[in-house]
Design goal:
With 120 residues, the chain is mainly α. It has one domain. It has five helices and no strands. Helix 1 runs antiparallel to helix 2, helix 1 crosses helix 4 and helix 3 runs antiparallel to helix 5.
């Protein structure tokens, strides 16, 4: 089932991973609410909705891609999480965080590359 990945395919996988990462953002907002209030139920309901959308998209992704490639791209949730933490929660970026995310990105790029001997 070795399929050649195009940029469009990789972007589609990243879109799915981005949706998954948004569930953590909504969960953080939910955790800031008083338990059993309207805001609490709103954010937890929104988290369930985001995860349901992600589950449907993920099922389609694993039909189209090698499972090893799909799961390797899922590791990019760290990049999206770092991005959301800076943009939404105003967290700081440290050199260790950058190094960690860079290592993950390098690993995903290596796994997404088509080996020289297998080009169609």
């Amino acid at each position: 089932m070795n399929k050649s990945l195009r940029l469009r395919d990789i972007l589609a996988l990243q879109g799915i991973v981005m949706v998954f990462s948004l569930s953590s953002v909504v969960a953080k907002f939910a955790s800031e609410q008083t338990v059993f209030t309207g805001g609490f139920f709103l954010f937890y309901g929104l988290e369930v909705l985001v995860l349901a959308v992600y589950a449907l998209l993920w099922q389609q992704a694993i039909k189209r891609f090698d499972i090893s490639i799909a799961y390797a791209n899922k590791a990019m949730v760290l990049l999206w999480g770092l991005l959301w933490s800076v943009l939404i929660f105003r967290d700081s970026i440290t050199p260790r965080k950058i190094l960690g995310v860079a290592l993950v990105i390098i690993g995903v790029i290596v796994l997404n590359r088509e080996p020289e001997g297998e080009k169609a």
